[in-house]
Amino acid sequence: MPATETFRIPKNRKHVPAARQHVRKALADWGVIDQLADNVTLLANELVTNAVNHCRVSHAQIKVTLTLDGPDLVLEVSDPDRNRLPRLHVPDPDEEGGRGLALVAALADAWGHRQEPYTKCVWARFTLAGAESACSG
Lower CB count within 10 Å: N or C terminus of the chain? Predict the structure, then answer.
């Protein structure tokens, strides 16, 4: 049976650190540590920040779901701006932003997005080494 942790934050930059801390705690509770935990936490920060910055729905909630299912760890970040889909962008060297999805592509084993009836979800999947001992429920 997969382990799942889901939480929501208001669409506001001041809540991004709380999302990052929540992800880090869930990973630690599951025994996911070291570089993988750092990578998942970094990508959670990037995807939540993207949702906060680009969602055009006022007073929205950003939903974050982590699922640990055997060797797969999946991070999902959803927001209600379902038609504004993410695009991988190659920024100019002097551009301040625009590298978040490139980080996601570089650090996750796979990533993508899907449109749901009222939201869009951006996801990143990681394969755990020794996953059979990482999750006890």
Answer: N
Interior CA angle at 16 toward 105 and 81, to 5°?
70
Percent helix, strand, coil in the chain, to 5, is 35, 30, 35
**Domains identified in the chain, total number:** 1
- CATH number, domain of 100, equals 3.30.565.10
Between CA 69 and CA 2 the distance in angstroms is 4
- Spell out the residues 6+ positions from residue 61 whose beta carbon is closer than 8 angstroms to its own: 8, 9, 10, 11, 79, 80
| Owning domain of residue 17 | 3-133
List beta partners, residue 75.
66, 124
The amino acid that residue 40 corresponds to is V
For the segment 29-62, what is each residue's pLDDT rounded down to a tens digit?
999 989 999 999 999 999 999 999 999 999 999 9
